[in-house]
Amino acid sequence: MNRQTRQREAIESALIRADRPLRPAEILELAGPLCPGLGIATVYRQVKQGVEDGRLRLVEIPGSGTLYEVAGKHHHHHFECRSCGRVFEVDGCPGGLKGLTPDGFLLESHEIVLYGLCRDCCGSAA
Fold it and tell me: What is the pTM of this model?
């Protein structure tokens, strides 16, 4: 197995294990132990290639930069913790968004981001 494949597998394994969108630094932190010598530049190259190949998906949270998640998941939204900055997947969708679209407009897609405190940070905020 070549180095590129080990790096790619380590990165994808980290994303699968985390089961949430990750920033490149988070990917490096989780994938590094699986692939010694893995660097941040390689993470950026591999996630860029993964997005181009359709294996990974960009998640853009306003003000938080770009995150990455495994592609092919069902439709979902995201929750960003205001304390630790981690982003989590939120199952479900409120639906009925077509009714918010102005007359004569065609709704093609949407993104919803919820903000608050995650379970871990709620416990430390008490």
Answer: 0.83
